[in-house]
């Protein structure tokens, strides 16, 4: 049995269509009336969009119902599905906590409420009765003001028992006018000891080399091997990892065919750059992590040797995985020796 790690999954896009539709049927008369039948909701929710911005608008649909009161409901179902259907041993959940606060409050009150949201997500993750190691990545947002984004970084640093890293989300085409500010936010995050990833080089409009020095992992990053492969040696030397989310690029119109990712994987492997295969928004796609693997293999975008290397890289670059090695090694020791504790528990890298 292979156990997996997903390093890039958004809380807003993690709710599978059936769960979200049932929630609307029970608690949201407006959405229930708009989609009385499940199949029409699934078609609306999972269909491809023309652009990344259009695709990201769907997050607002889920953010509006992921309140402090309902978050345990969604977290429980997320982890249940991840354990039962995806064999996940490790999951990093990323989201913008400010967008789960009460919009009726003023800014300072919403910033204060972010801490409650983070604790709720953290405690719900621990109480889900499924043996998955989880960590939160808090997303700063390209459309939020500097004050809020800095507060998100502060919250991440203030709550290390729940948060394992920081991100910048909101569509990478919107970074250009605020690039100096975003660089400053990442410098501040690093100064507070935070681990970092960021949505860059996802689309042709999101190529910002100025951000790369501040990132430990690169959210998507596929435009580097596609458009600027000369940078790959620098990424390898820095030990950076690309978080590749295959289905996303079809849903956003970034790529026309998954086979186009073969160039990404081949060039990364040739240059020694680690890649982790992730789901990004498993609910919006209705595609779970094992099917991402299968789709890549079926389309000949990757081979089994490369797939295994990506699976191992995911654990190696996980921000909160507490062990030196992936779970397959621990399981093998347990089966052969009956003593999994012979494996050192705490990671040293």
Please count the helical segments.
Answer: 16
Fourth-level CATH superfamily: Metal-dependent hydrolases
- The CATH architecture is Alpha-Beta Barrel
Quick one: overall form?
Answer: globular
Domain Adenosine deaminase: 5-320
Enzyme class: hydrolase
Cofactor: Zn(2+)
GO molecular function: adenosine deaminase activity; metal ion binding
What does this molecule look like?
- With 349 residues, this protein is α/β, with parallel strands linked by helices.
- The protein has one domain: Metal-dependent hydrolases (TIM Barrel).
- The chain contains 16 helices and eight strands.
- The protein has helices at 17-27, 29-34, 38-46, 52-63, 71-86, 107-126, 146-158, 179-191, 223-227, 232-238, 246-251, 261-271, 282-285, 289-298, 304-316, 327-337, and strands at residues 4-10, 88-95, 133-141, 163-169, 199-200, 217-220, 241-244, 274-277.
- It has a four-stranded parallel β-sheet with strand order 1-2-3-4.
- Strand 2 (88-95), helix 6 (107-126) and strand 3 form a beta-alpha-beta unit.
- Helix 5 packs parallel to helix 6 and helix 6 (107-126) runs parallel beside helix 7 (146-158).
- The two termini are 26 Å apart.
- Its EC number is 3.5.4.4.
- InterPro entries: A_deaminase_dom, Ado/ade_deaminase, Metal_Hydrolase.
- Residues 5-320 form the Adenosine deaminase domain.
